[in-house]
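Re: that chain you flagged

S.,

Sorry for the slow reply, it's been a week of failed gels. I finally had a moment to sit down with the sequence you sent. For the record, here it is as I used it:
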Amino acid sequence: MIFVGDGSNLHPLDIRPERALVLGRMTTRERTQQLELMQGTLDLLILQTLAPGRAHGHAIARTIERRSDEVLQVGHGSLYPALQRLLRSALIAAEDGVSENNRKARFYRLTAKGRKQLYTETSKWERFSSAMARVLAPVAEEKS
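Prediction finished late last night. Pasting the structure tokens below so you have them in one place:
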């Protein structure tokens, strides 16, 4: 799960609204504070994170968190299903290796198909965010 907030007050973002992950111990108040993020956003973030080169799951999550100034917090319960989805779609490939901590780790990398998908989805996201910025920008009062 991805969380947003200022570090001391984090709220989960539901990245797959049609199948929201709701923990049994989550209160009704916490459920109503969930925000929805466009489906596929985590996939795009993962693809972008892997663009420079291969990385293991923890490094992917940490990079997204760091690059978003800790606004986006990626939980393992969302990250690993997303990685499996990307593997099944052949957008990434995986190989076993050893992490910088000398532990066994699975490293992920973009495939050619994944690089093409990253370009396509980034272009869509840029158009979407530009349109949102235009709609949300303050406008002078229109004359009736």
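What I noticed first: The chain is about 45% helix and 20% strand.

Talk soon,
D.
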